[in-house]
Specification:
It is a single chain. The protein is mostly helical. The protein is about 95% helix and about 0% strand. The radius of gyration is 61 Å and the shape is rod-shaped. The protein starts with a helix and ends with a helix.
């Protein structure tokens, strides 16, 4: 039993020496490595959190810019549509004015043509009347008298 007790005491001493050695020599560096690793992990997590926050901010900024671009596009489209409508309205007004001007000019031309035709018809009627009167009278009327008669007839016809 002395041998077992001696072995047990030696094992306890070896164990205590191993604990002392681990605590003195290995415990400090292992603890330091664990602390460094813990710090790196916490820094990595903090960096990941910052990255997530920056990503969220970038997404919000991108959405804001997209919304602004869409609003500007809508405004440009509305302005283009308004300008197209204004141009179309102006073209319609100009076309109506030009049409009215053409109608007025055509009416004036027709009125002049009608007046000219009436005048020509009056002259021809007057000449026919003089020719008929000349035949009836069986005599020739001189040119001056002839023109005077035509002018009188034209005045009467008017």
């Amino acid at each position: 039993m002395v041998a077992i007790t001696g072995t047990l005491i030696v094992q306890i001493l070896v164990f205590l020496a191993l604990v002392w050695f681990v605590k003195r020599v290995l415990w400090g560096p292992v603890t330091q490595m664990i602390d460094e690793r813990r710090q790196k992990i916490s820094e990595g997590l903090a960096a990941a959190e910052r990255g997530r926050l920056e990503l969220d901010e970038a997404v919000k900024e991108a959405e804001s810019r997209m919304a602004k671009a869409q609003e500007e596009a809508r405004e440009l489209l509305a302005n283009a549509q308004r300008q197209a409508n204004e141009t179309l309205d102006k073209a319609r007004i100009d076309a109506r004015a030009e049409g009215d001007r053409i109608v007025v000019a055509a009416r004036e031309e027709v009125d002049q043509a009608v007046a000219s035709a009436k005048e020509e018809l009056r002259r021809e009627v007057g000449e026919l009347a003089v020719t008929g009167a000349e035949r009836i009278l069986k005599r020739e009327i001189d040119a001056k008298a002839h023109n005077d008669i035509i002018d009188d007839l034209v005045a009467e016809i008017r």
